[in-house]
Write a structure and sequence with these properties.
2 copies of one chain form a homodimer. Chain A is built from 5 helices and 6 strands, in the order H-E-H-E-H-E-H-E-H-E-E. With 176 residues, chain A is of the alpha/beta class. The first copy, chain A, has a 6-stranded mixed β-sheet with strand order 3-2-4-1-5-6, with helices on both faces. In chain A, helix 2 runs parallel beside helix 3.
Chain lengths: 176, 176
């Protein structure tokens, strides 16, 4: 097996999943506490079902600590998309890519080679992170709807920044 | 109505659709003559059905003159995705973006405002064109499978190069 073949085998799939539709900002004093609406819960459940039916399984689901994201992550888990959900503070709005990427880097040396991970979070951060991984910088050109999904293939043998590839960008409309 | 509102109303949706699975290059003396395989025809038909069920309708389907692309365009038409299919030489492999973009520009001043168009063609051209429209240059970072679909929102009141947005990138797997 050549080095190139080996490198090819050690790509990681990263799914960036935006939380579902939440109650309006006006209805809650604390933005962080806003829950999903019934419609948001329903659409997110349908998206999760479609992902699961396509054989997707996340070795780890990292979620923003905000209620609407945690509820989205719980729905993914209920759909058998992953056994392990973990809160990660830097996935909250305005989080920095390197906060979770460095953590992931330290983890994946041990556990996450050839694995599939999900991050549940917010816009415009998820889109910005995707652009940074794929094209090296954020330009806010990816339209990611609520409960929408971005799929990225990241190399694990070199920095993923500007060296990843985009294979999926989809809104719930296409998965219902 | 402000100028900004007006501009917002005159965006155009562009779908870049890669031809389905075709017979191997070795089996045909002429690359341009390679037809879709049964599996390619079947998968493309399923993708077309899914697009149609989501209410998509193309005001015009432009296709590469190669047989595998023309067959793909015909399948889209059979699924009631558009009444009009037109061959366009510059959609053949190694075509230049400005060849079809300039033509489109001249047409859309008259007919294609707020409209939805499909281009049926080849990789890596479709991915390169998408990146050029959205990020201003091609880096071959979009993974577009056969019968896969890219969706782009293009402004019509200014050049779309580097000023469009990506809203869809999907392989048949997600639409079957």
């Amino acid at each position: 097996m050549s080095l190139r073949d080996f490198a090819h085998q050690t790509k990681m799939q990263l799914y960036l999943i935006r939380h579902g539709i939440a109650v309006e900002r006006e209805s809650y004093a604390q933005d962080a506490e806003r829950p999903l609406t019934n419609k948001g819960r329903q659409k997110t459940t349908q998206v999760a079902k479609q992902l699961s039916e396509r054989g997707l399984y996340f070795n780890l689901i990292l979620t923003s600590p905000l209620v609407r994201a945690k509820q989205t992550a719980a729905i993914l888990q209920e759909a058998n998309l992953g056994a392990k959900v973990q809160e990660f503070a830097s996935l909250a709005p305005k989080g920095e890519i390197f906060d979770w990427l460095n953590w992931l880097e330290s983890q994946r040396q041990i556990n996450y080679r050839d694995k599939c991970l999900a991050l549940v979070g917010h816009q415009p951060d998820l889109g910005n992170w995707a652009e940074t991984l794929v094209w090296g910088k954020a330009q806010e050109k990816l339209m990611l709807k609520k409960a929408g999904v971005i799929g990225i293939e990241m190399p694990v043998t070199k920095t993923p920044i500007g060296q990843s590839e985009l294979f999926l960008l989809v809104s719930p409309k296409w998965l219902l």
